[in-house]
Fold this sequence. Notes:
Blueprint: H1 20-23, H2 26-38, H3 51-56, H4 75-88, H5 91-122
Helix pairs in contact: 2-4
Amino acid sequence: MSNEYNEYDDIKHVGNCPERRNIWNPAEKVYAERWEKENIRVPGLNGGRGYLELLLNECPYTDHGLYRPVSEITQRDAYVAATVIQWLGTNIGRCLIEECKRKAKEIEPECRIAQQVSMRLTKGITHY
């Protein structure tokens, strides 16, 4: 990634109701500020891309492990993503995260078995 100016540099990763960061819930502040930080391009980290760029690219890597060119990221993309990330810091958002973590732990054994079967099929191993 070159050091040349890019329109991405003008994108603000701030969502709806940014004022809530300071008055309602400290978790919203932490989530929102971390999201902003992770969208600052750092050479050598994630191919010099922010999280939103990685998320909105279909597959960020080529077959050779190189990063693909980045699709255009709009201010609207950044606004929606930042709003969702900040929302995850609300009581409802944190309940969603905790419920998902609980469910993931519950189904982890099934996923491991499915992963092992998939790996065997990929390698052409048909017997156990």
